[in-house]
Design brief:
The protein has about 375 residues and is α/β, with parallel strands linked by helices. It has a domain at about 5-145: Rossmann fold (3-Layer(aba) Sandwich), CATH 3.40.50. Helix content is about 45%, strand content about 15%. It has helices spanning about 15-25, 40-50, 65-70, 80-90, 105-115, 125, 130-140, 150-160, 185, 190-195, 205-210, 215-225, 265-275, 285-290, 305-315, 320-335, 345-355, 365-384; strands at about 5-10, 30-35, 55, 75-80, 95, 115-120, 145, 165-175, 235-240, 245-250, 255-260. Strands 4-3-2-1-5-6-7 form a seven-stranded parallel beta sheet, sandwiched between helices. A four-stranded mixed beta sheet has the order 9-8-10-11, covered by helices on one side.
């Protein structure tokens, strides 16, 4: 059976992994839409390779170059933020939502309102707009399949079981490249050191989030929306080997864990094939070669991000969106050399304390809160 697919964010790392799997299983997929922000050359090459019906660039200024790159083909082209939303609303069997940041919120909402199956890789959709998105999913009858390795692991461990039987859900964290550093060392950490992740190949922002542990805290907020067992049942444990991606403990004492290599093609393949399975080129685990798997509790003294994220979830309403926006602003300042590593969490906490808007009811509310929280964080950065 051939299924149709839209890949929002086709030129990023999730897009690369998704299209690699589709390339290996071409007979099962018909590519409807591919989108990118401004990487016209790569987007055009992918659209030609996969015979996409539509190629969209989020940056409208890149539209003339995209038209030129796809001249002589029957591939439709479009550009601008609204065309991303329109593309996401086109009927397909599966939408891979991998646009990074708040730029991905409106397209994800459009896909949810339309219904169908969404392989969700956009963190902001659940962190900043979780209540609004889940309401749209319910209205549209959409099915969310999480592609983050941790949430996909939980999804797999829950298969065939009731949330009523869950005693706890544990998300594992690698701890990042600075896990063993003391407070004095962390204060002097450089961007190059913070993005040197020992297990995963990721972009700069998410790599810094891994180093601060904000990434795991944001994933806790996502899990809170995806798997509504109660915040008190969600836990985090540091697992430096990144082999166990998450665990679910049941009321009878049984704990199910999902293990796999540090390769995003594994959770993406789980989504693409769901409810079946598909082959991937990933090497099988060699547990004997690994030797041991170790675990330790998070140190919220050195890495307060997980505490802040739990507090944001407990506060609910707009606070997760405020936290997310402040973190993005602070991480950008760190990467630009304008903020120390340990001040990232300080800026986020101070923003949360000073800006407490009402709970968002619509996507426009979420985007307004995001803008205002960034403004608060930037104001704090000027005095940092």
């Amino acid at each position: 059976m051939t299924r149709s697919i839209t890949v929002l964010g086709a030129t990023g790392s999730i897009g690369d992994s998704t299209l690699d799997l589709i390339r290996r299983n071409r007979e099962h997929w018909r590519v409807e839409v591919l989108t990118a922000n401004g990487n016209v050359e790569k987007l055009a090459a992918l659209a030609r390779e996969f015979g996409a019906a539509l190629a969209v660039c989020g940056d409208e200024g890149c539209l003339p170059a995209l038209r030129e790159a796809l001249s002589g083909t029957v591939i439709e082209v479009a550009g601008g933020p609204q065309t991303l939303v329109d593309a996401a609303a086109r009927p397909v069997d599966m939408t891979v939502a991998a646009i990074v940041g708040c730029a991905g919120l409106a397209p994800v909402m459009a896909a949810a309102e339309r219904g169908g199956t969404i392989a969700l890789a956009n963190k902001e959709a659940l962190v900043a707009a979780g209540d609004v998105l889940m309401a749209a999913v319910a209205r549209g009858g959409a099915k969310l399949l999480p592609t983050d390795s941790e949430h996909n692991a939980i999804f797999q461990c829950l298969a065939g079981n009731s949330l009523d039987h869950v005693r706890s859900i544990t998300l594992t964290a690698s701890g990042g490249p600075l896990r063993t550093w003391n407070a004095e060392q962390l204060a002097q950490a450089t961007p190059a050191q913070a993005i040197a992740h020992p297990n995963w190949a990721m972009g700069a922002k998410i790599s810094v989030d891994s180093a601060t542990m904000f990434n795991k805290g944001l994933e806790l907020i996502e899990a809170w929306h995806l798997f509504p067992v109660g915040l008190e049942k969600l836990r985090i444990v540091v697992h430096p080997q990144s082999v166990i991606h998450s665990m679910v403990e049941y009321r009878d004492g049984s704990t199910l864990a999902q293990l796999g290599p540090s390769d995003m093609r594994v959770p993406i393949a789980s989504c693409l094939a769901w409810p079946e399975r598909m082959d991937t080129p990933c090497a099988p685990l060699d547990l004997a070669a690994l030797g041991q798997l170790t675990f330790e509790a998070p140190d919220e003294g050195r890495f307060p991000a997980t505490r802040l994220c739990r507090e944001a979830a407990q506060a609910g309403g707009a606070m997760p969106a405020v936290l997310n926006a402040a973190n993005e602003a602070a991480v950008a300042a760190f990467l630009d050399g304008h903020l120390s590593f340990t001040r990232i969490a300080v800026v986020v906490e101070e923003t949360m304390a000073r800006y407490t808007p009402s709970a968002p009811q619509t996507l426009d509310d979420v985007l307004a809160i995001d803008r205002e929280a960034r403004a608060w964080a930037l104001g704090l950065l000027e005095t940092a």
